[in-house]
Design brief:
homodimer; alpha+beta; Arc Repressor Mutant, subunit A; 3-stranded antiparallel β-sheet; 6 helices; 53% helix; elongated; DNA-binding
Chain lengths: 112, 112
DNA sequence: ACCACATGTCAGTATGTTCTGACACATGGC
DNA sequence: GCCATGTGTCAGAACATACTGACATGTGGT
């Protein structure tokens, strides 16, 4: 019974297509997402791997997370350090003219 | 036999996913693409429909066209006016972690 | 000749995003 | 106590993009 919940991990809520597109529209964020596809990682390590400053990475991660492409949680390592692990969510969007029409409709509804 | 060529209309070359994403990452361009999904249109009319200035629309159309999401051609109307008609290409991208990895690899190759 | 409508371009401004450097805080090991 | 490592935030500079307004060009119709 306890497995029921765990089995649902991986099923992402699918936020708007537009937010996903905006989130991935920057080379750095595209690289971050790609790196995270290799597996989960914590912020400082990720910053080293991608050779970018932590504050900057922090900003980009926030954008990715807001779009629902990434999720993160704090963990305490063996030596007691608080570490934020980030994972890529298994998103899936179909980018077609029809999807664009739907996304644009969403945008208009937002202006109400 | 002459149909062979015409039958190929609609098969787009599929430019990079990243360029497509960047092109659609702006609300205005998303709306432009959505409007063009209704059918082809010429620039001035499109500007009126979307209530944006022609110079601005011109800029956005250039970006959409560079990404391969849109194509355009000049035509001469019955009353002799040169009009630029724009059409949305039938693009199709699958936006997943794997696609992101591929797109990021593309980005890195570009820096060589 | 002038008006209405189409095309395109350019300079300059406004706005928004990206990026850096400095700061503050916490923990374990030397 | 101090250093290394982790976390986060903020102000301001640097950069990129979006946007406006004015201009130049062409056509047919009145």
């Amino acid at each position: 019974m306890a497995l029921t919940t765990d089995a649902r991990i991986g099923v992402s809520p699918q936020v708007g297509l537009f937010e996903a597109i905006v989130a991935l529209s920057h080379p750095q964020r595209m690289r971050i997402a790609a790196k995270l596809a290799e597996g989960r990682n914590y912020v400082s390590q990720l910053a080293r791997d991608l050779q970018m400053s932590r504050p900057l990475l922090h900003l980009h991660l926030a954008r990715l997370e807001a779009a629902g492409l990434v999720r993160s949680e704090m963990e305490v390592s063996d030596d007691g350090k608080a570490m934020r692990y980030v994972v890529l969510t298994p998103f899936s969007f179909h980018l077609t003219p029809d999807a664009v029409v739907a996304a644009a409709r969403e945008l208009n509804n937002r202006d109400d």
